[in-house]
Amino acid sequence: MQGSANLNVMIKAARKAGRSLVKDFREVENLQVSSKGPGDFVSRADREAERIIKEELMTARPTYGWLGEETGETDGQDPTRRWIVDPLDGTTNFLHGLPHWAVSIALEHKGEIVSGVVYDAAKDEMFWAEKGAGAWMNDSRLRVSGRRQMIEGIFATGVPFAGRGPLPATLQDLARLMPVCAGVRRWGAAALDLAYVAAGRYDGYWERGINAWDMAAGLVIVREAGGLISGIREGQDPLESGSVIVGNEGLFEPFRKIIRGA
Q1: Which residues sit in the known binding site for Mg(2+)?
Q2: Which residues are annotated as a binding site?
Q3: Are 130 and 7 in contact (CB under 8 A)?
């Protein structure tokens, strides 16, 4: 695969962290039956993956800023560039032995996401994109789906758990959307939901209350695959608001109207 020097650094870091996580993932099934459970183990796996990524990225680009799920935010000497990292998106899936989780790495330049990598290590699928260079999965070019009828579309979302705030709104979304589409999926990894829209596996995705590191890499991959992106409310910036709607060109407007309750 051809890419910039920065992208190659990102891919190398994602693969290295992915190898570490796959090794740990093989241990999860054994831990399920222990009295302590796998929770502490998975937390360590998550932190170790972020340590690996941070070491790789900051060694290669020591002046860049950093925003990571586990280690928070650090300003860089270069105020225009920042890494945005989720070392393990889909932690609950990982915890339960479900092979649907990913490493997510994005590069922000002057407030814009210009490169993104989402690595599904369990399936060895590397989704990646750079501004102006298209979106790819391994060596295959990605394009969003061409479906134009809502009743043919499959959409993805995240349903809030444990009584979290956006649950009532999400249930209302589902009540409006499910009667007019082919199905809704909730697979528990926002980065992969976005990558799947870019790959045409889903026709759209929406979610409220997610963090920048959950979606930063996925957004540039969707955009470079020809997808459309907006906040759930008019004028919202998804990275700042934590709410996002994405879709292919043919279904984006009717999908967005349904989610907005219009």
Answers
A1: 69, 86, 88-89, 214
A2: 69, 86, 88-89, 214
A3: yes
How many Å apart are CA 27 and CA 10, to the nearest integer?
26
Set out the domains of the chain in order of their start, with CATH numbers.
5-141 (3.30.540.10), 150-259 (3.40.190.80)
3-state helix, strand, coil split of the chain in percent (to 5) is 40, 25, 35
pLDDT one-digit tens code per residue, 169-227 = 999 999 999 999 999 999 999 999 999 999 999 999 999 999 999 999 999 999 999 99
- Using alpha carbons, select from 88, 81, 84 the residue that is nearest to residue 24: 88
Beta-bridge partner residues of 65: 82
Tokens 């790789």 label which residue? 56
| Angstrom distance (rounded) from CA 148 to CA 194 | 19
User: Are residues 145 and 248 in contact, defined by beta-carbon separation less than 8 angstroms?
Assistant: yes
pTM for the whole structure: 0.93
Q: Which two tokens stand for residue 184?
A: 């809704």
Residue 169 CA to residue 160 CA, distance in Å, equals 10
Token readout for 252 is 């984006």
Both tokens of 239, joined, read 């990275």
Please spell the DSSP secondary structure of 146-160, one letter per residue.
----GGG-EEEE---
- The DSSP letter of residue 16 is H
Please give the order of strands across the beta sheet that includes 204-207: 183-185, 154-157, 204-207, 244-247, 228-230
